[in-house]
Design a protein that fits this description.
By secondary structure, this protein is an alpha+beta fold. 26% of the residues lie in helices and 26% in strands. It has 3 domains: 4-95, Uridine Diphospho-n-acetylenolpyruvylglucosamine Reductase, domain 2; 97-227, Uridine Diphospho-n-acetylenolpyruvylglucosamine Reductase, domain 3 (2-Layer Sandwich), CATH 3.30.465.10; 247-311, Alpha-Beta Complex (Uridine Diphospho-n-acetylenolpyruvylglucosamine Reductase, domain 1), CATH 3.90.78.10.
């Protein structure tokens, strides 16, 4: 990649310079609260702006698949190395978070921008007496990231409520895919294998009773408070669920409850969470994850995979 200051000058044609930052610490943009600086960090506020920036990057042979640039929401499922990111972060800002509603006789569609948080969408659904999105109310993160990984909790997942997804490729071309075309499965979507960016999602819900919706959201929120270490920085659930097993139980059975590496720890409240307990570095968290995978394999013979995405240099 060319000199970052030369590249910034080119991007300033599409984005005001006050939204283009250099050497931006990524610890300020991830829920783990770790991560070194990104070379260039750009706050994107609209589809048009995103398309213009992508055109500039393409003209300069800068590609997403080659990890020259990264797309960020609120960084809730990421671990970024202490060395940071050599490249460009395109951050979908809070201005990229509109949630509109289209009423129909028996059901409703929410038209949501990719930067909207799942919590905000759940609140909008509740305010309009719509049921079906309660499961996602406590999932950290934005809708774009949730679509990429088909996020889910408490027997719900995005594929159950998505009608269609508007996408952009890295040439700035926009197209729409149906829920079936998104190839949703456990923590997977078509975006995992393609260079697509989520712009907007149509979510289809049902009319419901507002009191029942609130009761369900309150019930799930209490479960999270009781069972998850919400008081510490984390990336949410650290590991995928191995087929036929539960990652948290495998980790606990391996004697790793409370096990720590530097400032990182296996949560004593929920062994499926690695937490930043005491000013951990990204290296602390990474080394702890490696230890967990090794010890679980030794104890049970099961390979567990991380749900958290690692970005930057670790080994």
């Amino acid at each position: 990649m060319e000199n970052k200051y030369n590249l910034v000058q080119k991007i300033e044609v599409a984005v005001p310079k006050d939204r283009i930052l250099t050497d931006e610490p990524m610890a300020e943009h991830t829920t783990f609260k770790v991560g070194g600086p990104a070379d260039i960090f750009i706050d994107i506020v609209s589809e048009d702006e995103l398309g213009k920036v992508l055109s500039i990057l393409n003209e300069n042979n800068i590609s997403k698949m080659n990890r020259d640039f990264y797309l960020f929401g609120n960084g809730s499922n990421l671990l970024i190395s202490d060395e940071g990111l050599r490249g460009i972060v395109l951050h979908l800002s809070k201005n990229f978070a509109d949630i509109d509603i289209k009423d129909e006789a028996t059901d409703c569609r929410l038209i949501c921008k990719a930067g909207a948080t799942l919590a905000a969408i759940a609140r909008k659904a509740y305010d309009n007496s719509l049921t079906g999105f309660e499961f996602a109310a406590g999932i950290p993160g934005t809708l774009g990231g949730a679509i990429v990984m088909n996020a889910g909790a408490y027997d719900g997942e995005m594929k159950q409520v998505v009608e269609s997804v508007k996408l952009m490729d890295t040439h700035g071309r926009i197209f729409v895919k149906s829920c079936d075309e998104m190839d949703f499965s456990y923590r997977h979507s078509i975006i995992k294998e393609n260079d697509f960016i989520v712009l907007e999602v149509v979510i289809r819900l049902k009319k419901g009773n507002k009191d029942d919706i609130k009761a369900k959201m309150d019930e799930l929120a209490k479960k999270r408070r009781d069972k998850q270490p919400l008081e510490y920085p984390s990336a949410g659930s650290t590991f995928k669920r191995p087929e036929g097993y539960f990652a948290a139980k495998l980790i606990q059975d391996a004697g790793l409850k409370g096990y720590s590496k530097g400032g990182a720890q296996v949560s004593e409240k929920h062994c499926g969470f690695v937490i930043n307990k005491d000013n951990a570095s990204a290296k602390d968290i990474y080394e702890l994850i490696k230890d967990i995978k090794l010890k679980v394999k030794q104890d049970s013979g099961v390979d567990i995979e991380t749900e958290v995405i690692l970005l930057g240099k670790f080994d």
